[in-house]
Design a protein that fits this description.
By secondary structure, the chain is α/β, with parallel strands linked by helices. It is built from 9 helices and 15 strands. Strands 3, 4, 5, 6, 7, 14 and 15 form a 7-stranded mixed β-sheet that branches.
């Protein structure tokens, strides 16, 4: 079959021939309709992500909209390495797939589910625990996941959404969806000013590294009085670096809880439970998912595409 093939770490995929999928128990063979090139897809292909199999050649791709043997369009994934979703056909778990709602755009689903669910899950958990989202701070609002996080926060009733990033054009895009924005180029003081002296209730950090350190400084407080805040800080991505220095004074002076959210820490059953709701929001147009589609034969162009819109690969 035809597929995108990565032959070694750090290499871009090539369009070529790959062996047909090997079917296992409980799997079904489906055909590609659309699949997104997400940051995790690039990380796994490069061997830089903690979930990488470390084996090449391989077909990248983690999720897709696919067509089953009876013609049903489904959102699916969990393809066993060295196979992935950037291929004409894939063997997927029959028990982990979700039919698309009527009217859903396959490209929007393929481009939006992975980045969108990265914030929908921690936001939904926060909402269930506390009854409201309160003020949400998004570090890395200029990426696709950050843009969808703004929209998710609005859908889930956040009192305020503050987005931090560096690209003026994409900060403006986040503002169009209802966020107040601040440039991380202004450092900790600019971020503290954007917060207006109030602690956020939930922080979603897609950057980590130096950006997290800026946020830690902005969240710091002085004095020995009891903290009135209750901050949940959730690390989702590490676009700015894999490590960050955490001041001990922040942990001692503030009511703050740090956690991570990602493949491995999130429960698959919980994700599957939330998928129908999120699919419906995409199908109904409540979520705007900018995408740019490329045929599978032009996967090299899709791989090199800028981040402004999520690159989605379709048959062809």
């Amino acid at each position: 079959m035809k597929a995108a093939i990565v032959r070694g770490p750090g290499q871009a995929p090539e369009f070529g021939d790959f062996a047909e999928p090997v079917m296992g128990d409980g799997q079904e063979l489906v055909e590609l309709v659309a699949t997104g090139i997400h940051p995790i897809v690039r990380g796994l292909a490069a061997g830089a992500h903690y979930g990488s199999s470390g084996a090449w050649p391989m077909i990248p791709g983690i999720d897709a909209v696919a067509r089953t043997a009876d013609g049903t369009l489904v959102y699916t994934g969990y393809v066993a390495p060295p196979y992935g979703t950037l291929a004409q056909r894939m063997a997927v778990p029959a028990a982990i797939r979700m039919p698309l709602p009527d009217g859903a755009d396959p490209a929007a689903v393929a481009g939006g589910i992975n980045p969108g669910m990265s914030s929908w899950m921690p936001m939904s958990a926060h909402l269930a625990q506390r009854g409201s989202l309160g003020t949400v701070l998004i570090l890395g609002v200029t990426g696709m996941a950050g843009l969808l996080a703004v929209q998710n926060a609005k859908i889930l009733g956040a009192a305020a959404v503050i987005g931090a990033g560096r690209s003026p054009e994409r900060l403006a895009q986040a503002e169009d969806h209802g966020a107040r924005t601040v440039s991380l180029a202004g450092g900790a003081q600019a971020l503290a000013d954007a917060l207006g002296g109030r602690a956020p209730d939930l922080v979603l950090d897609y950057l980590w590294g130096s950006a997290a350190e800026t946020a830690f400084e902005a969240l710091g407080r002085k004095g020995l009085g009891e903290d009135s805040a209750n901050i949940s800080y959730v690390e989702v991505g590490s676009a700015a670096g894999p490590t960050a220095a955490l001041p001990s004074s922040l942990l001692r002076s503030r009511r703050i809880r740090l956690a991570g959210s990602g493949a491995g820490s999130a429960q698959i059953a919980t994700i599957v439970d939330q998928l129908p709701t999120y699919l419906r929001h995409i199908a109904d147009g409540r979520l705007a998912v900018p995408t740019q589609s490329f045929p599978l034969s032009h996967v090299a162009d899709a791989w090199a595409a800028a981040e402004g819109a999520r690159a989605v690969v379709v048959p062809g």
